[in-house]
Amino acid sequence: MKKLFKVFLTVILSALISHTAMADFKKTKIAVLDFQTQGEKFETDDMGKIVAEWLITDLVKEGRFDVIERRLLEKILQEQKLGVSGVIDSESIAKLGKVLGAKIVVTGSVMKLRQFIEVNARLINVENASIIAAEKVKSESAMKLERLVTEMAEKIISDFPLEGYVVERAENNAVTIDLGRLAGARGGKRFIVFKEGKAIKHPKTGEILDIERIEVGEIEIRSVKEKTATGVILREAAGQKIEYGNMVRSLTEATTISEPYWPEEKTGTPAAPATSPQSAGQFNTGEEYYLFTTIHTAKNLSTWENRTDIPAIHAGEKVVLTKLDRHYAKFTWQGREYTFIYHLAKTPNAIMLSKFLTRDDPNPAISGIPDDIKTAVAQGEAKVGMTKWQLLYSKGVPIVAGNRKTFDMNLEEILIANSWVYLQGRMDKLYINFSGDKVTEVRD
Hints:
By secondary structure, the protein is α+β, with helices and mostly antiparallel strands. 24% of the residues lie in helices and 34% in strands. The chain folds into three domains: 28-158, Rossmann fold, CATH 3.40.50; 163-256, Thrombin, subunit H, CATH 2.40.10; 270-444, no CATH class.
């Protein structure tokens, strides 16, 4: 009877927590004003408006923001005799917030000076007109402005992490959280799992200033329903276990690869990093290799997904392998050390590394490419008429070949496929189709 009552109580509590969390969840209401243009003249006088539209599109895609509709915003601003751009004084912001019901106003500028482009944004709390965040992205090359705006959207999204609860842990270690499609949860999104610890109090007043957060582990979402999402456990902290009632907080793209980690073995003992000497098939630390295919890095980190909108180290560059582990490798290039992470691939690292590193110099083959294709390769572009190998030199290994993710595929298997997909942003993909060995279609 006690056991039955315990089960019943667990079910009731689960329903209450899930219902309460969903009831409390509300999308953040945001108004995005036209960006001011600065510096050299843009191709169109409406560039500030276009940048705002691009930013709105990226924020709406995320699913967790209630963005004020453009025409309504313009109508109300005209009625209130406020400008569409540059409304940053406290009186105007307070007035705007009362009329629109928005909690956050995004305003900013885009500056062009020769090849230099910079986008600035400020997130303003309409309740007190304070700037709660200021974000900046810039490029010293002819990077597409739209791509910079997408980077800006990612920064803004990271200022509003999703938070919820674990509502179920199944026997197969699947974890369900109370954040679903309506809240902006997406497949592939990762969450830190934590629990509350002791209260942090002021020594004089006794006021509770904060609550300690104890990290329990990390999960990645695999499937999403309207109000819930189910994922897999990527890791659990030593001595901790992810369980019902734990809290979750979404990670940004940048933080998900910030530190390598070692999942627990089936025995529950954390796996340790490899020790020297290290080798993986034909790969050994301390030895020189050429990049067989282009690899993309951000903040000295790269992953097997090889996201193509971040800076590239091109095929043919010489590197030195400095560390090998089951879940990541380190190499140096031009005096700097980089970490290549493939822990989610769950494939032997020799298979993974063989797609990126080689002892044979590929530069003679690259130098023999026709000049028009060679220019595209140097700029990391995909172009109709390229061969599959030329595309590997240009953009690197795709995330999908055929209908299969490439983490456990070797290059021969990838080269057989007649369609490739590249990840070129958090959500954006580039689709390549081939006829035989030649690219016949390139589309976003």
